[in-house]
Amino acid sequence: MSGHRERFDEALTQIGIQGVTGLVERWADFSRQFRTATLDWDSQMLTYEGDLQTWTAKHGPGHFRIDGLPNDSRLYYVWQGWGERALGDGTADVLMTMARDLIRLGGPFGGPTPTVDMPPLSTELRIRHARKKSEVRLERSLPGVFSLARVDHDGKFALRLLGRVNQGEPLIPEVLKAEPLTLAIAGTRIPWCFTDCFPIVGYIHAPPHELLLCICDVETVGVLSDDALAGTYFTSPTKLAEFDAVRWLDSLPRPRRFVSTPGAPAANVPEATPAARAPEATSDAVRRPAAVTAPEPHAEEPAQPRQAAPRRATGGLESRPKRERPLADLVRRHFAHVAAQIPAGVLGAATAQELWSALEQGYRRDLAAISGSRTDLFTALFAAGLLKSMPGEHTGRTALQILADLSPIVRKIHHRRWSLMFPELRRETSDVIRAIRAREEGGSD
Predict the structure, then answer these.
(1) What is the residue range of 406's domain?
(2) What is the pLDDT of residue 229?
(3) What per-residue confidence (pLDDT) applies to 254?
(4) 126 and 242 belong to one structural domain
(5) Which ranges constitute the DSSP H helices of 292-392?
């Protein structure tokens, strides 16, 4: 294994990356950008076609577009100069949320819908072919190593490694039929999510770790942890499916916690002891490499009697508390921050994303508090039109726990009772707002 690591470090150095440590730092910078991304929508009324509207939002090499009525629309992504693909139907608000969730996974994926005689999209190191339900990418990953990947619309992908670029075209029919790459964790197969951060080609959240799939050479891929750099597993692509990662994950040291703020550098904060930990646990979903550090948290000093600061008789400046973020802006920022931290590729993640979007819409509608069993909560949200379907028992319970770990809006009262704290989001002095403000403290103004 050490020989694989040395060769991989050498290959990374040839493309300007300082070994595995530099690669993980590169991933942290890359993933931070899409996990905190937002979309700014512009709207236009098409008066000559009745009440139809178009909403557009620029993102990446193109833009999202929503066509239709506010309550009946279709979402597209348009690749500049290449084509477009329809991604879903629904209300404009739901489709905007769908687009936001997609870019926070690293999408859009899958390329445009192919048309007659549609040419491939080519750059110096990449050729992209549109297919009916996916796209095929042929690109150089490392010196002397090329990858052929089929990328589906949900981010799942199949992969073949090549020594020469001209080997790729004959293998396209094979890769189109191949099963998506997955990783076995405790008997459950988790699909890798494609990422455009070569030689990293995929990622999986396996809290408290995030796993990265890397191309090492023509015959080898590596599974890395984004924190435990000593924990590297090398294998051939054909044997990756045989690797059950549970024991390997258990052998990795538990990473330090990382507190991140959208749009700002992440702070590396050592995990607190159970007695000192805040009531709402910090999320494991977003971590950053140890190269970014923050001062150690200082111990709380004994309270001292306060003395009134002297004031000038006229017009003098006096000590003022730090200006607090407006309440609505604070809550809106918290919803965006949590959405970026929901893990992908684990049980309950997709349900948690859908549930969190429903809670954000519930807050906008000023819903009353909802308390009861898991089924009571989902029934109320479904009846309000905020959920498209009732989640399953296991995925629903896991989704609630994911959100409860990330936000005080979702509160677990005991093992069979939950509360959604909507009214507290409107009260400046509520314990929910105090907890949110503490979490978001230090964010950009």
Answers:
(1) 327-440
(2) 58
(3) 64
(4) yes
(5) 327-341, 349-364, 374-383
